[in-house]
Specification:
The complex is a heterodimer. Chain A is of the alpha+beta class. Helices cover 31% and strands 28% of the residues of chain A. A six-stranded antiparallel barrel of chain A has the order 14-15-16-17-18-19. Chain A has a four-stranded antiparallel beta sheet with strand order 5-6-1-7, sandwiched between helices. In chain A, α4 packs across α13, α5 crosses α6 and α12 packs antiparallel against α13. By secondary structure, chain B is of the alpha/beta class. Chain B contains five helices and ten strands. Chain B has a nine-stranded mixed beta sheet, with helices on both faces. The chains are: A alpha+beta, B alpha/beta. Chains A and B meet through α14, β12, β14, β16 and β17 of A and α1, α2, β2, α3 and β5 of B.
Chain lengths: 507, 185
C-alpha cells in the first residue's frame, strides 16, 4: 500500500519570518500580490493573492513588507534542525513554513500517528512557531489536513477531499473553468474519467486530477537509484567564503538539469550536501518537481548556507572550510513536458555568458548587471539593474502614464548619487522655489560639485514631483529644472528641502 | 558621455553585444535612445582593482567595450590589452585618457537648444566634434552634428557650411577596425 505522509504547517510563516507578527496589520507581498498577512490584517479583509492596492484600501494602516525568500529559508533552518534532532530524522522543506516527511517510521517510533502529530506540533512550539500538522496518503491531502489538524485514514484521501471546492487545487484558471462547467467540488472533478480530463485539460489537468483522487501528483518511479545523476563540485583547497559555493551550486544545478533533461526525467526533490573539512557533512532537501531554475537552486543553497554559517555549523571543531558540494536528485520520474521559462533569456551568446560568469566569480554575483527599463519618473527610477543571469523578480514599477516624466532627449550621465549643487542669482543669493513653484530670482550661476562654476544661459521649470505622498517613509516632494550653461552643458537639477542637487548631466 | 554612447551605438550595430566597465553613471535611457540595445549589454560598475583583468576578459568576447575613468593605465597593461583587442577584433572606447589610442575624439564646442529663460524643454545639442588620429592622420578633422538630436539620436547638421568632414566620420573611424579609441567630453 502507498506511503503515509505527515505535513507540518506554520500559518502565516512569511509574516513570522519578517519578524512582525504582533506589530499591527502587516502583509508580506511579492510582485504586487499579498503572499501572507497577519491576523489583524486578515480581520480587516486582507486576503492572499490580493493586489497590494486593494489590500491597502481595505486596511489603510497596513504595513507592506517585500518578501525575502532567502531570509525565510535562513530563519526557518533552525526550526528544521530542531525537528530533525527531536522528532524525525528525515524531512523535506516544501517551502519555508511547510515541511513534509514520510510518516510510517516516525509514527511507529512515537507510538501512533496522533502522537507523532502532537510531537511535531510540540517541537515547533518549542522554537516559538505555532504549528499544525496532518497526516494523509499524499502530500497535497496532508497539507490540507494540516490546516485543520486532521488525520486522514489510510486510503481515505479521495473521500476526505471530495467536499472541498475545486479552488483548493491551486490552479485558479482550471478552477474557474471547472466551476463554469458545473464541476464545483474536488469529488466531482475526481469522478470525471481520466482520459477525458487528459484530453481536455492536458498534463496540468491530469496532475490535478490525480491529486483530486488522492494519489501522488505523478506516479512514483520504481527506480530510486539517483546516484548516477548526482553532481558534485570539489573545492581544492577548501573554501571559507560562501560565494564560491553558491556560484558552484549554480553551475552544478545547470549541469544537473542538463543530465536530467538528457535522461528525460525530472526529480521531485533535490538534496544538497555540503561536505566539510574533517569529514562532517550537512544536507538539506528541497522540493524541486522540475520547477526550479538553476538560479533558484543556487538561491536556496545560499539561504541554507547562510543559516548554517550563522549557526556556526560550518566551522565547528577548529578546522573550517567546505570541501565538496553535492546536488543529488531524488525520486526521479519521467518528464511529462513542462515548458521551461522563456523569460529573461538574454540574446547574449554563450561566450559572453561564460565571460560574465567568470567575472561574477571574480567580483561577486551582483557585480555584473544588465539594465531593464520600467516605469518611473526620474531618469534613474526608470532603470532597473538586474544581476546577469537572474530573472527580474523584483517589484518592478508598472508601465503606464507617469505624469511628470521628462521627454527625450535623456541625460547621458545619471549620477548614482545626486551631486550637491548651488544655483545662485545675480546677487549671489541661492535661488529658491516657492510652494507655488515660483523662482525667487533669475538664476545666474550654477556650481556643481566637481564640475566647476558656469554662467546660466537658459532654464526651464521648475516642475513639481510629488511622489508616494501616501507613504511617509518613501514619499518625496521635489522639483526639477533643466538648466543650460554658457559653456555648452545642460543639467537636470533637483531641489529637495531647499537644497539643490544635480541629478543628471545631459552633456 | 553622449559622444561615447553615440560611438558605442554605432560600433555595436549587428554585433553580439557590448559591455560598460566602471561607468555606473551611464544613462540607460539615453543609451537606448541613441541606439544601443540594452538587452545585449553588460554593466560592470565596480571593477575595483581587478579592472584590467575584467576589461581583458570582456575584450576577448565582447565586440564593444566601454570603459570609464579607471585612473592611469600602466603601459604594460595597455599593451597587453591592445594585443587582446588585435586578436579579438573588439573595439575599446575609453571615456578618459588612454595612451596609445588610435583616435581621440572630443567635443570642441556645443550649444543646447530648446531651453530659454524660464520656458521650453531641452530639444537637442549642436556640437562640433574633433577627431585626432595618430601618425599621418594627426591633423584634426572636424564634424558638426546633432548630439543628441531631437529624437535622441545622432544626426548630421543640415547646414554643412564649412564643415570639412561629414558626421559619417564617426562611423568610419571605428568600423575601420581600429582597436583603441579615446573619447573625451
Amino acid at each position: 500500500m502507498g506511503s503515509r505522509i505527515i505535513v507540518g504547517w506554520i500559518p502565516d510563516y512569511p509574516v513570522i519570518a519578517a519578524g512582525a507578527l504582533d506589530a499591527g496589520p502587516i502583509a508580506v507581498v511579492h510582485r504586487d500580490e499579498v503572499v501572507a498577512c497577519s491576523g489583524s490584517a486578515r480581520m480587516a479583509g486582507v486576503r492572499r493573492r490580493m493586489r497590494v492596492r486593494v489590500a491597502q484600501s481595505r486596511c489603510p494602516q497596513l504595513r507592506v513588507v517585500e518578501r525575502d525568500i532567502a531570509a525565510e529559508f535562513r530563519v526557518f533552518e533552525p526550526a528544521v534542525r530542531h525537528i530533525e534532532d527531536t522528532v524525525m530524522p528525515r524531512l523535506e522543506v516544501i517551502r519555508p513554513g511547510l515541511i513534509a516527511a514520510p510518516a510510517r517510521g516516525p509514527s511507529r517510533y512515537w507510538g501512533g500517528e496522533s502522537h507523532l502529530v502532537e510531537r511535531l506540533a510540540a517541537a515547533l512550539d518549542e522554537v516559538d512557531l505555532p504549528a499544525r500538522a496532518g497526516i494523509a496518503d499524499s502530500v497535497f491531502t496532508a497539507a490540507l489536513a494540516a490546516r485543520t489538524g486532521h488525520l486522514v485514514p489510510a486510503g481515505g484521501d479521495a473521500a476526505w477531499l471530495a467536499p472541498y471546492p475545486v479552488g483548493v487545487l491551486g490552479l485558479p484558471r482550471l478552477a474557474e473553468l471547472l466551476e463554469r462547467l458545473g464541476v464545483r467540488t474536488v469529488g466531482a472533478f475526481a469522478a470525471l474519467p481520466e482520459n477525458r480530463v487528459l484530453a481536455r485539460f492536458g498534463v496540468e489537468g491530469i496532475a490535478a486530477h490525480r491529486t483530486a483522487r488522492g494519489q501522488l501528483e505523478r506516479p512514483l518511479a520504481v527506480r530510486t537509484d539517483s546516484g548516477e545523476h548526482a553532481v558534485s563540485y570539489v573545492f581544492e583547497p577548501a573554501v571559507h567564503l560562501l560565494d564560491p559555493v553558491v556560484f558552484a551550486a549554480k553551475a552544478c544545478a545547470e549541469q544537473l538539469h542538463e543530465h536530467l533533461t538528457a535522461a528525460g526525467v525530472v526529480c521531485a526533490r533535490l538534496e544538497t550536501v555540503v561536505e566539510l573539512v574533517g569529514g562532517r557533512s550537512l544536507s538539506r532537501t528541497f522540493r524541486h518537481e522540475g520547477r526550479l531554475s538553476s538560479l533558484a537552486v543556487a538561491e536556496r543553497v545560499r539561504g541554507v548556507l547562510q543559516a548554517w554559517s550563522d549557526a556556526g555549523l560550518l566551522d565547528a571543531g577548529g578546522e573550517a572550510g567546505i570541501v565538496q558540494l553535492v546536488l543529488r536528485p531524488e525520486q526521479l520520474t519521467a518528464a511529462t513536458g513542462r515548458q521551461s521559462a522563456l523569460f529573461g533569456e538574454g540574446r547574449t551568446s554563450d561566450e559572453i555568458e561564460r565571460a560574465a560568469a567568470r567575472m561574477q566569480a571574480m567580483l561577486g554575483h551582483q557585480a555584473v548587471v544588465r539594465a531593464e527599463l520600467g516605469g518611473g519618473r526620474g531618469p534613474a527610477d526608470q532603470v532597473r539593474l538586474v544581476p546577469f543571469g537572474d530573472l527580474d523578480t523584483g517589484a518592478r514599477l508598472p508601465d503606464g502614464p507617469w505624469p511628470g516624466r521628462l521627454p527625450a532627449p535623456h541625460p547621458a550621465t545619471v549620477f548614482p548619487q545626486w551631486v550637491p549643487a548651488q544655483l545662485t542669482d545675480p546677487r549671489a543669493q541661492q535661488v529658491t522655489v516657492s510652494g507655488r513653484l515660483a523662482l525667487s530670482a533669475t538664476p545666474d550661476r550654477l556650481t556643481v560639485e566637481g564640475h566647476g562654476e558656469a554662467v546660466v544661459d537658459g532654464w526651464s521649470g521648475p516642475w513639481p514631483v510629488l511622489e508616494r505622498w501616501w507613504d511617509r517613509g518613501h514619499g518625496r516632494r521635489i522639483a526639477r529644472m533643466q538648466i543650460t550653461t554658457a559653456d555648452g552643458h545642460a543639467w537636470l537639477l533637483t531641489i529637495e528641502h531647499g537644497r539643490w542637487w544635480a541629478e543628471a548631466h545631459y552633456g | 558621455m553622449p559622444l561615447l554612447l553615440a560611438l558605442a551605438a554605432e560600433a555595436s550595430v549587428g554585433t553580439a553585444g557590448w559591455a560598460a566597465v566602471g561607468l555606473p553613471q551611464m544613462g540607460a535611457l539615453a543609451a537606448k535612445s541613441v541606439g544601443l540595445d540594452l538587452a545585449s549589454g553588460l554593466w560592470v560598475d565596480e571593477p575595483g582593482r581587478q579592472w584590467a583583468q575584467v576589461v581583458a576578459t570582456l575584450a576577448e568576447v565582447v565586440p564593444v567595450v566601454l570603459v570609464g575613468q579607471l585612473g592611469t593605465v600602466p603601459g604594460q597593461i595597455a599593451r597587453r590589452l591592445a594585443a587582446v583587442l588585435r586578436r579579438s577584433g573588439s573595439v575599446l572606447l575609453a571615456a578618459g585618457s588612454w595612451d596609445g589610442a588610435e583616435v581621440r575624439m572630443n567635443v570642441v564646442s556645443a550649444a543646447w537648444e530648446g531651453v530659454s529663460e524660464g520656458h521650453g524643454l531641452l530639444r537637442g545639442r549642436r556640437v562640433r566634434v574633433a577627431a585626432v588620429g595618430r601618425g599621418a592622420s594627426a591633423v584634426p578633422r572636424y564634424a558638426d552634428m546633432w548630439l543628441p538630436g531631437p529624437d535622441g539620436r545622432v544626426a548630421p547638421l543640415p547646414t554643412g557650411a564649412a564643415v570639412p568632414d561629414g558626421p559619417e566620420t564617426v562611423s568610419d573611424v571605428q568600423l575601420g577596425g581600429r582597436p583603441v579609441l579615446r573619447v573625451v567630453g
